[in-house]
Amino acid sequence: MKYNITKVLDDAGFRATNADKYPLGEIVSTITKAFGASPSLACSHGAVEELYLCFTKDFKPRDCANGLRTAHNPLNARKSCPTSIRIPEYTPLAALGDETSSLIWTPGHTNFLLQAME
């Protein structure tokens, strides 16, 4: 995968954890350096909720027009990012105790299918 943000952040020492906080500016500069364009982030309760990479029509990275949603630049106050943020851990549906569904992933595809179990 050419634009693997998780790997870029992990390689730079920014681990997905529900406890550790990292400087927002360092996360943004790490992504910008890796892809040549600045991302757009939205946070909720001090954690990254959404992270966008923006592209031109010919699929080259470009700076996101909306920029950062921070407490100092509140494009959306509910989703603003503090100066230190958490990168939440991924919790699959099965780990949430929902034994009636499962995620199916097929190599070569980018979509997941949520399937009810009998």
The oligomeric status of these chains comes to single chain
Element string (H = helix, E = strand): HEHEEEEEEE
Number of E-state strands = 8
Strand content: 25-35%
Give the neighbour order of strands across the main sheet.
1-6
Continuous helix count: 2
Helix content: 10-25%
Tell me the overall shape: globular
**How is the biggest beta sheet arranged?**
2 strands, antiparallel
What key attributes describe this structure?
118 residues, 2 helices, two-stranded antiparallel sheet, Ribonuclease 2, 8 strands, ribonuclease T2 activity, alpha+beta, 31% strand, RNase_T2-like_sf
Describe the protein's architecture and organization:
This protein has 118 residues and is of the alpha+beta class. Helix content is 16%, strand content 31%. It has two helices and eight strands. It has helices at 5-11, 24-35, and strands at 17-23, 40-44, 47-52, 54-55, 61-62, 84-87, 101-105, 112-116. The strands form four sheets. The protein has a two-stranded antiparallel sheet. A two-stranded antiparallel sheet has the order 2-3. A two-stranded antiparallel sheet has the order 4-5. Strand 2 and strand 3 form a beta hairpin. The longest helix is centred in the N-terminal third of the chain and has 12 residues, at 24-35. It is globular and about 40 Å long. It starts with a helix and ends with a strand. Mean pLDDT is 75; it is low at 67-78 and 100-118.
Present the secondary structure layout:
Layout: H1 5-11, E1 17-23, H2 24-35, E2 40-44, E3 47-52, E4 54-55, E5 61-62, E6 84-87, E7 101-105, E8 112-116
